[in-house]
Amino acid sequence: MWTVMVCLISLMFIFRQIVARGLLDVLREFSDNENDFISVMETVARMSEDGEPTVRAELMEQVPNIAMFLHENRPNFPEAFSRYLVPIVVRYLTDPNNQVRKTSQAALLVLLEQGLMSKADMEGKVCPVLLELTEPSSDDDYKIEAVAIMCKLVIMLTKDTVEHLLLLRFCELCSDVRLFQVRKVCAANFGEVCSIVGQEATEKLLMPKFFDLCSDSLWGIRKACAECFMVVSNCTSPEVRRTKLSPLFINLISDQSRWVRQAAFQSLGRFISTFANPSITGLHFCEDGTLCEIPKICSESRNASIDGSPDSLIQPRSEQLQSTSVLTGPPSHPPEGNSSTQPQEDGTSLGHPEHSDPLSHQQKDECTMFNSFNFWRAPLPDITQELELLREEKRDEGKEDVPSLDSQGPATSSQIQKVLDCLQPHLDDPDVQAQVKVLSAALKAAQLESQTEDADESVSESNGSTGSPTSDELSAMSELSLTDAQISDSPSSSPVLNVIPQQLLDQYLSMTDPARAQTVDTEIAKHCAFSLPGVALTLGRQNWHCLKDTYETLATDVQWKVRRTLAFSIHELAVILGDQLTAADLVPIFNGFLKDLDEVRIGVLRHLYDFLKLLHADKRREYLYQLQEFMVMDNSRNWRFRYELAEQLILIIELYSHNDVYDYLRQIARNLCSDKVSEVRWISYKLVSHVKLYACEAHDLGLNFINELIMSFCHCPKWVGRQAFAFICQAIVEEDCMPMDQFAQHLLPSLLSLSSDPVPNVRVLVAKALRQSVLEKPYFKDPGSAYSDELEEALSELRMDKDRDVQFFATLDPNRNVMDTAALI
């Protein structure tokens, strides 16, 4: 009897589970009647109070689907979700059964991700429960789970909601002494919270908590802090980043725990990238994520050769980038809480309007065209008044030889010293510090030159010479000038120390040390390679000398994964360095990658066009002879390698002349068209059509190539070749690879001849090419066209073809593309 009762009870549980599982279907059936619908929803509410946990868990699994249904039918039942489902989800967050709570938490996140829960419900029903569960007196298990939900909830809420309801509680939880699990969850999600609340709240409320977490007694919490360091840094001002976060990060790199040091080194390059400044790099990120140079103001529109003026001395980095437009003003939407350089009316940041030609609004827009990514530079101090006072003082003293802003003479040591004095009150600005270092080097050079001139005068006087300097004197002067240039360009005077803290750079450069692999991470060199473009971007091309040796070391690393990482990013590094440094330092490494393992070669191959287009034409032409080498692989079965080659060649064609395309790329394209793998063949047929585009512009080459196409494909004894000819003709027409009159004269007759091919697959593509491409061109739509009758006759035969697929494509609406061509192989 007891056994029977147990079975009946079990059946009752199973029955209620089945009912819960089928609630969505029931709602759909009764959604037309409002009274029936309300009855079903009330049944759902009663089922949520079921004493069996499996029934409650099953019901909660159905909640997201039911919520989606109610959302789609919101006009009919606007309050149903908020009235019936949200209370169930919230109540289950405190359910005594662990499975039910987990299911409820997952359902809540799905509802938030799908945008199904209103702001009022989140603020009025969900957040109060989470705040209650995270009280100091709350149960430990509930508290840990609630903190995890809160942290995930933060990124789905608005800034105002987070600041108003959750921020203070999050700060309290970061200092939870009793539960390390709570602190660990907070540390792991610290960056997301900072991103939501912004710079002001981050620096005022969150930064002290972050310092505490970075020095927590548990290494897992410190490791979590190291992993989110870049995101936190992005939410702070340059001053906080340099003076507070940098020393804190150095502590993590030197942490006693290997796991913390490992995480810190993995984040080091990303943290350094947060110091990037467009005014230093001369580069910006476009909307599609590509890296581009900031447009330059035309130098002809300005008074050239102002190197000797004080103004030129106080902006050395922008001149090194050969761009004065990077300081013209802030981005259209600067990051909240960050200051940015204010634009002058004449479009320049430093200088007087009377010394520069006015720019049009369009020119100004082009010169300031960069987004707010990594744009945190504080405004430079305006010292134009001090410079004007300096000149007036010189005039009052009767010195007529004082250079003005547009003077071409060199600045004297006294002038440089006065500019340095003007900058002293602003030494807390890192950019001013960089200017002071350059000015100091220039001052030393000026003083040295002055001493040398005095020495030359004394020698001349002692020798009784009053004429021109002798050849020996000219040689000495030349050596002195070279020494001055070396002084001004030496690493000691380079602004690198003021772009990022020197300790960070030293630690990054040490990542190639073999000892690091033994004491920190065996793949530390790979992490170094991965972040190197970001570090190079931050330092700017003028500081490439700091990274050159490290890059060369990584490029010859014995681990192919390290070399592969560099191969995939070398095109981005070329954009950062510019054409001169690329030709000198990257091209040799690029050439080495071309001869490396396939795993490395695929990296340069995938971005071959992006790299080659950055080279000068003569240098680029040298690679024509090496493209054929990509046909040779370590593993011939690696067909994706050949597929990638065909895709890149389609882009590369435009970089070369017609003769080069015909002499070198044509043969590679033909070889790829005979590949054993169909995917490679189909992309190669498209490549052939593009080769035709560039070859046909040179008339003789075009005719030769047309004849080759006809002989190789149209008259091919294998049906696959004849099918390829139909596809090539279609691609040529669709992409306008040649004038239609030439196509009609040279290729159309051969295409029409295939309309009676014995193989149905060939006739299918002929019908598709004629109906969807050829007849859609205005040249062939004219009833008076010389080929209109032949086209109609061929299509009539194809419409009556015995093969159904041929009939279908011959009559298909050209605007419908219901079948992929490759599927016909």
UniProtKB/TrEMBL annotation:
Polar residues: compositionally biased ranges: 315-327, 337-347, 460-476
HEAT repeat residues: 245-283, 747-770
Biased composition (Basic and acidic residues): 352-362
GO molecular function, one term: protein phosphatase regulator activity
Statement: the UniProt record of this protein carries the keyword Repeat: yes
Gene Ontology CC: one annotated term: cytoplasm
Keyword terms: Repeat, Signal
Pfam families in alphabetical order: HEAT (PF02985), VPS15-like_hel (PF22956), WRNPLPNID (PF15017)
PANTHER family the record matches: SERINE/THREONINE-PROTEIN PHOSPHATASE PP2A 65 KDA REGULATORY SUBUNIT, WW-BINDING DOMAIN-CONTAINING PROTEIN-RELATED
Protein name, as recorded: Serine/threonine-protein phosphatase 4 regulatory subunit 1-like
Organism: Sinocyclocheilus anshuiensis
